[in-house]
Amino acid sequence: MTDTPALAASHRTHYENFPVASWLCPAHLRPPIAAIYAFARTADDLADEGAALPAQRLADLSAYRHDLHACAQGLATSARWSAVFTPLQQAIARHQLPVPLLDDLLSAFIQDIEKTASAAGYADRAELLDYCRRSANPVGRLLLHLYGITDAQALQRSDAICTALQLINFWQDLSEDLPRGRFYLTEADCQRFGITRQDLQAAQVTPAMHQLLADSSAWAAALMHAGQDLVHQLPGRIGWELRLVVQGGWAILRKVQAQQGGNLHTRLQLKKGDWPGILWRTLRMQADQK
C-alpha cells in the first residue's frame, strides 16, 4: 500500500489514500466521507480480496449495486452490508450525494474483474482514461461536492489529478499486476515501442521497455501538472489535504522514474524518510502562489 494521505482512487489500493476522519477534514464532513470510504473499500474488497472466483465476485458486486440503488431511494437494503449502507443512506439524504458517481465506481470494479478474468488489456489511452473516469475521478468529484465546489474548472482539474494518481498507482504496481494478468500499459503504447505481451510478462528492462515506462510516467506527470493548480482554488483544510495528496503522488512518481524499470520487479512505497521532502514541497506549493 502507498502511504499518501488522501485518495488516489483506484481499485485494489484499498482506498488507503482516502482522507478518512482526517484532522484536516471539518468535523461535519467526517461522517459522509467515512461513509463513502466504507462503500468504496467494501466494493474494492469484493472485487479483489480473498479467493472467490470471478463469477462470485461479479454476483456479489451485482447484489451490492442493487443495495446501492435501494439505499439511494430510501428503501431497505440487505442485511449483509447494513453497516455500509445505513450511514451511506444518511449521507446521500443529508448531502445530496450524486449517486451516479458511486455507481461509476462499481462499474469500474466490475470491468476490472472482467478484464482480469480474460487477461484483456486496454487498447489505447482513451479506453484506459474511460476506466479512470469511473475508477478514480468520482471520488474527487464526491469530495468537491461535499465542500460545495461545483465549477467546471475545479472539476476538470480534480479529474486530471485523480487520473494522474490512478496512473501512478498502475506504474507503481506493475510488479504485482503483470503476474496476475492485469495489463494497464495500453496495447497502442506497447506497439509504439515494439513491446509484446510476452515482453511485459518477462519483465526484462530492455531499452524499448525503458522508453515505454518513461513515456507512460511522463503521461501521468503531464496530467498531474494539468490539475495541480486546483490546490489554489480550494480553501482551508481541503486545500492542504489536496496539497499532501499531490505531493505524495509526485513522490511515488519520482521513485518510479528513478528506478528506470525497477518497478517491473519491486513495488515502490513511500517511507518515513520521504515525508520531510513531501511536507516541504507541500509548503512550497503555498509559498509559490504568493
Automatic annotation (TrEMBL):
Entry EC no(s): 2.5.1.21
Keywords: Transferase
GO molecular function, one term: squalene synthase [NAD(P)H] activity
InterPro entries the record matches: HSQ_synthase_HpnC, Isoprenoid_synthase_dom_sf, Squ/phyt_synthse, Trans_IPPS_bact-type
Keyword set includes Acetylation: no
Domain of life, source organism: Bacteria
Pfam family, one: SQS_PSY
Keyword Coiled coil: no
NCBIfam families: HpnC
PANTHER family found in the cross-reference section: BIFUNCTIONAL LYCOPENE CYCLASE/PHYTOENE SYNTHASE
Name of this chain's protein: Squalene synthase HpnC
Organism: Comamonas denitrificans
Gene it is expressed from: hpnC
